[in-house]
């Protein structure tokens, strides 16, 4: 799985975040469904050109 993003920002301090979550449907054990965090990440682009 991959995620591609493009952004144009005037500010020099910008952070991008992403989270991948697997959502299980409701069942006897989890009547309100269940979400499992598979991965997450933060990309700081403050110093990308320095």
What does this structure look like?
- The protein has strands spanning 15-24, 34-44.
- It is built from no helices and 2 strands.
- With 50 residues, it is mostly beta strands.
- The protein has a domain at 15-44.
- It starts with 14 loop residues before the first strand and ends in a 6-residue tail after the last strand.
Q: Helix and strand string, N-terminal first?
A: EE
Secondary structure: number of strands: 2
- What kind of oligomer do you see? single chain
Distance between the termini: 30 Å
Instruction: Provide the low-confidence segments as ranges.
Output: none
Shape: elongated
**Structural class of the helix and strand makeup?**
mainly beta
Radius of gyration: 17 Å
Biggest pleated sheet: 2 strands, antiparallel
Strand content: 35-45%
Q: Assign a percent range to the helix content.
A: under 10%
| Average pLDDT, all residues | 82
Number of helices: 0
Strand order of the largest sheet: 1-2
Q: Summarize this, please?
A:
By secondary structure, the protein is an all-beta fold.
Which descriptors apply to this entry?
single chain, 50 residues, mainly beta, two-stranded antiparallel ribbon, 0% helix, elongated
């Amino acid at each position: 799985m991959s995620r591609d993003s493009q952004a144009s920002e005037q500010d020099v301090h910008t952070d991008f975040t992403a989270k991948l979550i697997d959502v299980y449907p409701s069942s006897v054990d989890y009547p309100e469904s269940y979400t499992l965090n598979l991965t997450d990440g933060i990309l700081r682009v403050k110093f990308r050109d320095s």
